[in-house]
Design goal:
Layout lengths: L1 E2 L12 E13 L2 H13 L4 H24 L4 E12 L5 E12 L1
Parallel strand pairs: 1-3
Antiparallel strand pairs: 2-4, 3-4
């Protein structure tokens, strides 16, 4: 399946619009990751543990969106938008949502 943030795919005219599709996931980080991230905050640098959680959440939301597009008979999703939010008590969970237009090219 072709995925793009652009409204069109060069060289591939849209033959049919199938509709808007979405994918969502909420994922939590554990206490160990929070502790390690606090150390990274203090000493500087990147937080590899949080980056892995962020990538996992994005990939899960995108997979869910692709499954929904496939169920509609689409072979591409155009105009993809990704949103990231923290939710829960003390913003301890990460929500990733994505949306796009399922199309047949």
């Amino acid at each position: 399946m072709i995925l793009t943030t652009t409204p069109t795919i060069e060289g591939h005219p849209v033959r049919e619009y199938k509709g808007v599709v979405t994918g969502e996931t909420i994922i939590g980080a554990n206490v160990f990751k929070d502790f390690m991230a606090n150390l990274t905050d203090f000493f500087g640098g990147r937080s590899g543990s949080y980056e892995k959680v962020l990538i996992e959440a994005k990939d899960t939301a995108m997979q869910e969106m692709m499954q929904r597009a496939h169920a509609l008979g689409a072979n591409a999703i155009v105009g993809i938008d990704l949103d990231y939010e923290t939710v829960g008590q003390s913003s301890s969970m990460l929500m990733v949502s994505c949306s796009g237009t399922a199309v047949l090219i």
